[in-house]
Amino acid sequence: MEERERREDGFREECGVVGILGRGNVVDLLYYGLYALQHRGQQGAGICVHNGEKTWVIKGLGLVHDALSDEKRASVNGYMGIAHNRYATTGRSTKIRNVQPLLVDYKGGKLAIAHNGNLTNVGAIRKSMEESGSIFQTTTDSEIVLHLIARSKGKTLPDRVKEAVSQLEGALTCLIMNEQMLLGYRDPSGVRPLSLGVVDGMHVLASESCAFDLLGAEFIRDVNPGELVVLTKEGATSMQLVPPKRDAQCMFELVYFSRPDSVVYGEPVNEARREMGRALARRHAVPADVVIAIPDSSNSAAQGYAEEAGLPYELGLIRNHYVGRTFIGPDQAARVDAVRVKFNPVRSILDGKRVIAVDDSIVRGTTSRKLVDLLYRAGAKEVHFRVSSPPVTHPCHYGVNTPSREELIASSSDVEAIRQYIGATTLGYLSMDDLEHCVKDKSRFCYACWTGDYPIPVPELANSIPFDVD
């Protein structure tokens, strides 16, 4: 990939979507909604709005404030719109044409989409469409959804969407908009989150409830798996578009992706992570002086560990939140250097101490190794590395950019071998049993990245599908 983030050898975030139908101009509301979801995608952002007469799209590469400048936002207006933060999974991420929302003209007028997830059967569908004459402008699987909707014989947009999604497999949380209505859909396994809220009589759809908090919106409920929410000037209605299938809500949303101040799948993320930390302390207790987090996604788990262990929780690593992403080169040496640029140890906390460092995952192991070395260089006497999830052994095929299985260190190495590689004094992972007991209903979740049990069929060549994932 051309851009690297803090977790350069780990999972990449997915994407974030926001949709609003109200009154007046909702452009700035969409913009701030994307701000709240910036953690879900940093490679591009876009907004599509309709004002009753005209439909506009503005978009750009980079973070929200760079991609959607004051000047761009002032050039458009609309009472309804959809917005998208992008994190792609291929080197095509810097193509502006792939930044969403995508807007097309078809026989029914204007049609726009913003999508979070990964369709696992797009290869065969796209090949069939191309053979029948379809022309594609992007390399995203989201464009295929637009083609299927445009081809449908359905009389209404919901009818068209129903026909389209019946042909798709995989993770599909999306917002769709024409010139009359805004739709929010969540696939029948509910892989990616989508919630409904309201502010000043305006309905809001968003990937996470933290967007509602920034907008001053009231959380109403999660959109159900297989449900289509329809927003019009008359209000909000819904229909069960597709019967629910085996639940496959992504557990990594709770472990890492979602913001801790969100409620996702009905679970307060902060509390779920604290419980993971408590369980980790019960499972892997060790004499120590201090507990620290690998910031920021592990903060809550580290706090939970410290509470259960009766140890002080300290800010032993300070993360530089103002470091850009594009400066990090693609070669391994540059990725290693990025750890030192983004994290600085607090020597007064670490020097001479037995340190428990809590992280949410170890993927390739490169970052963990450099962090352990960083802590030793700051004077730590011992570094006990604790991971608030089980060993990651399988890639995700549902919208998370994951290294191939061969690159996942836990797929070929046991815990002791990983400990030796990263250089920790001891290493302990959360067990699958413990993880499942940290949520209200363990049967609702997808654990495939830890177990290899994929709840939605994955084609044999899924890793080679030549599309960006949104």
From TrEMBL:
Domain Glutamine amidotransferase type-2: from-to ranges: 15-234
GO molecular function: 4 iron, 4 sulfur cluster binding; amidophosphoribosyltransferase activity; magnesium ion binding
Family recorded in the similarity comment: In the C-terminal section; belongs to the purine/pyrimidine phosphoribosyltransferase family.
Binding sites annotated in the UniProt record for [4Fe-4S] cluster: C250, C396, C446, C449
Protein name according to UniProt: Amidophosphoribosyltransferase
Organism domain of life: Bacteria
UniProt pathway annotation: Purine metabolism; IMP biosynthesis via de novo pathway; N(1)-(5-phospho-D-ribosyl)glycinamide from 5-phospho-alpha-D-ribose 1-diphosphate: step 1/2
NCBIfam families tied to this protein: purF
Membrane-crossing residue ranges in chain numbering: none
Cofactor(s) demanded: [4Fe-4S] cluster; Mg(2+)
A single GO BP: purine nucleobase biosynthetic process
Binding site for Mg(2+): S297, D359, D360
Textual note on the cofactor: Binds 1 [4Fe-4S] cluster per subunit.
Lineage, opening ranks: Bacteria, Candidatus Eiseniibacteriota
Keywords: 4Fe-4S, Glutamine amidotransferase, Glycosyltransferase, Iron, Iron-sulfur, Magnesium, Metal-binding, Purine biosynthesis, Transferase
Encoding gene, per UniProt annotation: purF
CDD domains for this protein: GPATase_N, PRTases_typeI
